[in-house]
Amino acid sequence: MRLALLFSGQGGQTPAHWQQVREGADGELGAALARVLPAFADPLSAPAPEQLATNRIAQPLIFAQQMLLWGRLQSSLPKPICAAGYSLGEMAACSAAGAFGAAEGVALCAERAAAMDGAAPGEHGMLAVLGLDDELVSTLAAENRLAVAIRNAPRHLVVAGPRAGIAAVVPRYEAAGASRLVHLAVRTPSHTALLTGAVAAFKQRLDVLSDRRLAFPVFSAIDASAARMARPALDALARQICTPLDWAACLQAVREMQPDAVLEIGPGNALARLFGELAPEIPVRACDDFRSPDGIVRWLTADS
């Protein structure tokens, strides 16, 4: 079994994911979460659904949920041949490959979130635009003080920037014939130059981590380059904060590894759907499609 992993980013988190982490995180991981999320330390407290979209809650929460799932699955599955992470998900991909531990990753995600919030105060957001030529999407975005942040697939881009700009560009995309517009549950202009100020501090934090050989290659979401050592993977984590992502190229790189199956770990199933559209010949599922980790293991080991 040649298994590839995809780790989802922000946008699909729900109160159910908060509850999963609440019930499953203990030991060092639970203590790390309690330090960065005050509500986690109080068993009677939980963030409102709209609060789950804030960086300071979403980033450590999603990372912890992903690492809990991977921790439960790892011993029952073959070693992956590669991993990739969508935006925040690249933190989990690096951790799963051994660049840093889960508890340390929670702290890093909290620092990442704080750096991003500090670099771009105010009201920002991200909008997925489907069905329009890339050049038109980019042109209309620039005219409204936005920038292309992610290329998911041909004619499927994500733009980011001030919420006022997003509000202004929506009717223009509609008039141009966009097949779908989706406001993402993210409140920061991720992967744009607006977050340049967040990179140096986060890179300085990552630079103190030890270099080591990764357990499997991690593809950078920036350009699909494969890191087999921790240092280039960590450098990419810092750069991607303010650099557009070519997720389409990343998925193609995973496809070219010829996996027998692909598993998306984290909230939602958007990455599984994107990969399924690109490579319908390769079985792909998301953890959220299953009721328990046992179901995921049964699916992946059914023919072995």
TrEMBL record:
<dbReference type="Pfam" id="PF00698">
    <property type="entry name" value="Acyl_transf_1"/>
</dbReference>
<dbReference type="InterPro" id="IPR050858">
    <property type="entry name" value="Mal-CoA-ACP_Trans/PKS_FabD"/>
</dbReference>
<dbReference type="InterPro" id="IPR016036">
    <property type="entry name" value="Malonyl_transacylase_ACP-bd"/>
</dbReference>
<dbReference type="InterPro" id="IPR001227">
    <property type="entry name" value="Ac_transferase_dom_sf"/>
</dbReference>
<protein>
    <submittedName>
        <fullName>Malonate decarboxylase subunit epsilon</fullName>
    </submittedName>
</protein>
<dbReference type="InterPro" id="IPR017554">
    <property type="entry name" value="Malonate_deCOase_MdcHsu"/>
</dbReference>
<feature type="domain" description="Malonyl-CoA:ACP transacylase (MAT)">
    <location>
        <begin position="6"/>
        <end position="287"/>
    </location>
</feature>
<dbReference type="InterPro" id="IPR014043">
    <property type="entry name" value="Acyl_transferase_dom"/>
</dbReference>
<dbReference type="InterPro" id="IPR016035">
    <property type="entry name" value="Acyl_Trfase/lysoPLipase"/>
</dbReference>
